[in-house]
Specification:
The protein has one helix and eleven strands; from the N terminus they run ββββββαβββββ. The protein is mainly beta. A hairpin with a 7-residue loop joins strand 2 and strand 3. The relative contact order is 0.24.
Length: 155
């Protein structure tokens, strides 16, 4: 027996920017998709040479609710097929940013990659972000790992 829990929704404002009457706004591509696909808002193709980065406009701005962030994540298809990903792995759009959403893409592949107008270039997820309140202490609690850093488990 499977049960479904109610899906949490959060209202987010989005604005098409001037000159963008038709580039699709971010949208979920399946019923249970975690991320919304984001499309390139371009007038002409942009070619990214191997090892280079291009900043791709989307043609929209958003108002992420306070206490949330929008995360831009790579599309697995672009990464696996062409080596195209986001150079910062996950880009963050803060709740107080109101400019155009732009996506930095890096070509880690062997060949030029062409971004076409309307192409799906990344995914966007809206996530709640708790605020950290530091509690300065003289000692931290002990754990089995302790200060073991990168590679300490042998993996």
């Amino acid at each position: 027996m499977t049960t479904t829990s109610p899906i949490t929704t959060v209202p987010c404002q989005i604005k098409r920017l001037e000159g963008n009457p038709s580039t699709p706004l971010p949208a979920y591509q399946s019923e249970h998709a975690a991320g919304m696909d984001v499309h390139a808002h371009l007038q002409e193709n942009v070619t990214i040479a191997p090892g280079k980065i291009a900043l791709i406009p989307t043609g929209f701005a958003i108002a992420v609710p306070e206490g949330y962030e929008a995360q831009l994540r790579p599309r697995s298809g672009l990464a696996c097929k062409f080596g195209v990903t986001l150079p910062n792995c996950t880009g963050t759009i803060d709740a107080d940013y109101r400019g155009e959403v732009r996506v930095a893409l890096i070509n880690l592949g062997q060949n030029d990659f062409t971004v076409e107008p309307g192409m799906r270039i990344c995914q966007m997820i809206i996530k709640e972000v708790p605020k950290c309140v530091w509690q300065e202490v003289d000692e931290l609690s002990e754990t089995l790992r302790g200060a073991g850093g990168f590679g300490h488990t042998g993996h």
